[in-house]
Write a structure and sequence with these properties.
Layout (H helix, E strand, L loop, with lengths): L4 H37 L8 H26 L2
Keywords: Membrane, Transmembrane, Transmembrane helix
Protein name: Secreted protein
């Protein structure tokens, strides 16, 4: 049995980068939702917190897209 170390290293590197990207996007989404809730709790208007809501939706959509693509790859399509 022979191990192709370069391919193993590439797989590790790509997996690490994708994982960090998904975690960062999720943290950004949670932070944006928290910021929106803080604006609304302080008596701010829903329009003022709308930008944070857009950021949260985009961040969570990116997470969902990454998970969906991973499942697509696992299914062997």
């Amino acid at each position: 049995m022979s191990i192709h170390w370069a391919a193993l290293g590439n797989t590790f590197g790509v997996s690490l980068l994708i994982t960090l990207g998904v975690v960062t996007a999720f943290c950004l989404g949670v932070s944006a939702l928290s910021r929106r809730e803080a604006v609304l709790a302080d008596g701010g208007s829903a329009v003022r917190g709308g930008g944070a809501l857009v950021v949260a939706v985009v961040a969570f959509a990116a997470c969902a897209a990454a998970v969906g693509y991973g499942l697509y790859l696992i299914a062997g399509a």
